[in-house]
Amino acid sequence: MKELAQVVAVDGRRVTVSTQLKSACSGCEQNKTCGAGILSKVFSDRHSTFVVKTESPVSVGEYVELSIPEQQVTRFALLLYGLPVLTLLLLASVLTSFTSITEGYTILLSFAGFALSFVALRLWFRLRDVRVNQLLVVSTPAQPSL
């Protein structure tokens, strides 16, 4: 997975880059008539800024290409979307099979576990930011296409 980013600041090997957050609507032909497409244009000026390490010499204002292995993106997406649903289903089945609590409490506890799994994943991903930063490859693109 690749993304073009602009260098905002350079501090030795640490480079601060800024990328524009895109929506799926930008590639859709119906974005002029679709409600979601119209809303995505209203909120289109969103940027993400973060620090990465690089061995290549770069200067402020230059565009660089950030890339991360697609296998890692797939793993993170499966964790983010799959684990909460799996937690919800497992909690619901365990609570109905092995406890004598009512159906309402089972539903509430299952959704509480669902929400807690998102909180746990958020904390875990923050701890893993260091590893994701190590997987990120910064290179100079052949031609900036903005």
What is shown here, in short?
With 146 residues, the chain is α+β, with helices and mostly antiparallel strands. The chain has helices spanning 35-42, 70-98, 103-135, and strands at 2-11, 14-20, 47-53, 63-67, 137-139.
Would you identify the regions where 5 or more consecutive residues have pLDDT less than 50?
none
SS summary, helix count: 3
First CA to last CA: what distance? 17 Å
Biggest sheet, strands in spatial order? 3-2-1-4-5
Radius of gyration: 21 Å
The amount of helix comes to 40-55%
The major sheet is characterized as: 5 strands, antiparallel
**Number of extended strands:** 5
- The sequence of SSEs as H and E is EEHEEHHE
Q: Roughly what is the average pLDDT, rounded to an integer?
A: 78
Amount of beta strand: 15-25%
Number of domains: 1
Structural class: alpha+beta
How would you sum up the global shape?
A: elongated
What would your notes on this structure say?
- The chain is an alpha+beta fold.
- The protein has one domain.
- It has 3 helices and 5 strands; from the N terminus they run ββαββααβ.
- The chain has helices at 35-42, 70-98, 103-135; strands at residues 2-11, 14-20, 47-53, 63-67, 137-139.
- The protein has a 5-stranded antiparallel sheet with strand order 3-2-1-4-5.
- A hairpin with a 2-residue loop joins strand 1 and strand 2.
- Helix 2 runs antiparallel to helix 3 (103-135).
